[in-house]
Design a protein that fits this description.
This is ANTAR domain-containing protein. The chain has a domain of about 70 residues: Arc Repressor Mutant, subunit A (Orthogonal Bundle), CATH 1.10.10. It is about 55% helix and about 10% strand. The strands form 2 sheets. The protein has a two-stranded antiparallel ribbon. The chain has a two-stranded antiparallel ribbon with strand order 2-3.
């Protein structure tokens, strides 16, 4: 924990002696990291670091898959309700927050059923003839 002074002090105060963060890559860009904290003073073994990178890669794939589902649902909802993509996304996000749902679960419901299971306030549901 040498490079990030402010964070280092907080981690040490919480009882951690080591921290590593394998990057989450999308093509050549780092989009995040998977922090690993260790209370023991010795560094992580190379095998553990390789496994951690594999887990970071898997997490990246999961994020991309979730984002793809959200984009598909956003397009479907926009078409069904005859609204913009931004309005569809805001409706999905508001619905998820109001009902304490994961946005990805709301998106899956839209893909599976063609709409959200609970009617959010704001945008009316499209009539059957509007969706054709």
């Amino acid at each position: 924990m040498r490079r990030h002074g402010c964070l280092t002090g907080s981690l040490r105060a919480a009882g951690y002696a080591r921290a590593v963060a394998p990057p989450m890559w999308l093509r050549q860009e780092t989009i995040g990291s998977l922090p690993l904290l260790r209370s023991a003073g010795r560094p992580l073994d190379a095998d553990i670091l390789a496994l951690a990178q594999t887990l970071a890669d898997a997490a990246t794939i999961g994020l991309l898959h979730s984002r793809t589902i959200i984009e598909q649902a956003k397009g479907l909802l926009a078409a069904r309700r005859n609204v913009s993509l931004n309005q569809a996304f805001e409706t999905m996000r508001s619905h998820a927050r109001r009902h304490r749902l994961l946005l990805s679960n709301v998106a899956r419901d839209i893909i599976d059923t063609g709409d959200m299971l609970h009617q959010p306030s704001g945008l009316p549901r499209a009539k059957a003839t509007d969706a054709e």
